[in-house]
Design a protein that fits this description.
Blueprint lengths: L12 H10 L3 E5 L3 H14 L3 E6 H7 L1 H17 L7 E8 L2 H9 L4 E4 L6 H16 L4 E6 L3 E4 L2 E3 L10 H8 L3 E4 L4 E2 L10 E2 L6 E2 L5 H10 L5 E3 L7 H9 L12 H8 L3 E6 L1 H17 L6 H24 L7
Parallel strand pairs: 1-2, 1-13, 2-3, 3-4, 4-5, 5-8, 6-9, 8-12, 12-13
Antiparallel strand pairs: 6-7, 10-11
The chain binds 1,3-dihydroxyacetonephosphate.
Length: 333
C-alpha cells in the first residue's frame, strides 16, 4: 500500500471547493507518454494552476500502470524543479470500470479515482459507486461518479447515443453513494467527432460545422438540486480547427471533426463545473506537429526532432486552456 500523500500528490476535495467558490475549473488532462506529461507539468507550473493528471484504463494498458504511477511521482519533483514550490497535482483514474481496478489504484498511490458505472441500471450504479467510495475514503482518496451517458468513443468507453443526466436523480445518487464529485451528461461527448454533420448546422462563410449548444438547462437544474456540489464535464475537447487543418494539410484525413466551443466551456467553468476533461485536443496537437515535421523534413528520423515540436505545441495548448478557458491560472501559487 502506497499513500499518495507520501508522493506529494493531493486529492480533489479542497481544490474543488475553491474552484466552485472562485468560479473556475480545474483542468483534467489525460496522459500516456512522457512528452504529454512534460507539457502538462510545464504548463501548470508556468501558470501556477492546479492540475489533474488522468490515467485511463487504455493508458494503463499502453504505457504500463507502474511506469505511469512513477512518472506522476516524478512529475511532482519536475514541477518543483521548474520553480513551482507547492505543486497541486492530482493523480486520477479516468473511467474506472470495476471495484478491483479502483482499489488497485487507491492502493498504488492515486489520489482520486472515477468509478464509471453509468452504463449500469441506476441501483447497480449506486451499489458499485458506494462500494468504491467506502474503500477509497478510508485512505482519503476522492471519488468521481457518473450519472447519464455521454456519446462518443474513448479508449474502451463508447456509446452511440447520449442520455442526459436526470436532475431528479442527483440528490438521491450523491447522498446514497457519498461520492465527492459527479460527472454529468449535458451534450459533451468523447473523441474528435462529437457530433454528426446532421446534428450540426454549417457556417455559410467557412463551411465549418457549428455544433448544437450544450444543455445548460440540465446543468442549471442539477445545480439547483445539489447546490455547491462539484460537477465534472467529460468529453470537453474543442477540437481546434487549426490543428485539424494542419493534420489535413500534411496528409491526414479528419473530415468534419468537431468539438465543444470554448465559450461554452468558459461559461460552464464559472458555475459548479469544477473539473473539465480534455484529451483529444492534446492528441490532435501532437499529431499535427509530428505530421508537419514528417511532411517538411522527410529525412528526419530522430524522435526528439518530431516529439519535441509536438511537446511544444501541447504546452501551448494546455496553457491556453488554463488561462483562457478554465481560468485556473494563479490558483495554486
Ligand atoms: P475528449 O475526448 O473531449 O478530450 O474527452 C476526454 C475525456 O472526457 C476523458 O475522460
Amino acid at each position: 500500500m502506497v499513500s499518495y500523500k507520501e508522493l506529494g500528490l493531493v486529492n480533489t476535495r479542497e481544490m474543488f471547493a475553491k474552484a466552485i467558490k472562485g468560479g473556475y475549473a480545474i483542468p483534467a488532462f489525460n496522459f500516456n507518454n512522457m512528452e504529454q506529461l512534460q507539457a502538462i507539468i510545464k504548463a501548470a507550473a508556468e501558470t501556477k494552476s492546479p492540475v489533474i493528471l488522468q490515467v485511463s484504463k487504455g493508458a494503463r494498458n499502453y504505457a504500463n500502470q507502474t511506469l505511469l504511477r512513477y512518472m506522476a511521482q516524478g512529475a511532482v519533483e519536475y514541477a518543483k524543479e521548474l520553480g513551482w514550490e507547492k505543486p497541486q497535482i492530482v493523480l486520477h483514474l479516468d473511467h474506472g470500470d470495476s471495484f478491483e481496478l479502483c482499489k488497485s489504484c487507491v492502493d498504488f498511490g492515486f489520489s482520486s479515482v472515477m468509478i464509471d458505472a453509468s452504463s449500469l441500471p441506476y441501483e447497480e450504479n449506486i451499489a458499485l459507486t458506494k462500494k468504491v467510495v467506502d474503500y477509497a475514503h478510508q485512505y482519503d482518496v476522492t471519488v468521481e461518479a457518473e450519472l447519464g451517458v455521454l456519446a462518443g468513443v474513448e479508449d474502451e468507453v463508447s456509446s452511440a447515443v447520449s442520455h442526459y443526466t436526470k436532475p431528479e436523480e442527483v440528490v438521491d445518487f450523491a447522498t446514497r453513494t457519498g461520492c465527492d464529485s459527479l460527472a454529468i451528461s449535458i451534450g459533451t461527448s468523447h473523441g474528435a467527432y462529437k457530433f454528426t454533420p446532421e446534428q450540426c448546422t454549417r457556417d455559410p462563410k467557412t463551411g465549418r460545422l457549428v455544433p448544437p449548444p450544450l444543455a445548460f438547462d440540465v446543468l442549471d437544474a442539477v445545480m439547483e438540486q445539489l447546490p455547491g456540489f462539484p460537477i465534472v464535464l467529460h468529453g470537453s475537447s474543442s477540437v481546434p480547427q487549426e490543428y485539424v487543418d494542419m493534420i489535413n494539410q500534411y496528409g491526414g484525413k479528419l473530415p468534419d471533426a468537431v468539438g465543444i466551443p470554448e465559450e461554452q466551456l468558459r461559461k460552464a467553468a464559472k458555475s459548479a463545473v469544477c473539473k473539465i476533461n480534455i484529451d483529444s485536443d492534446s492528441r490532435l496537437a501532437f499529431t499535427a506537429a509530428v505530421r508537419k515535421v514528417f511532411a517538411e523534413k522527410p529525412a528526419e528520423f530522430d524522435p526528439r526532432k518530431y516529439c519535441g515540436p509536438a511537446r511544444d505545441l501541447m504546452t501551448e495548448l494546455y496553457k491556453h486552456k488554463i488561462i483562457n478557458v478554465l481560468g485556473s491560472d494563479g490558483k495554486a501559487e
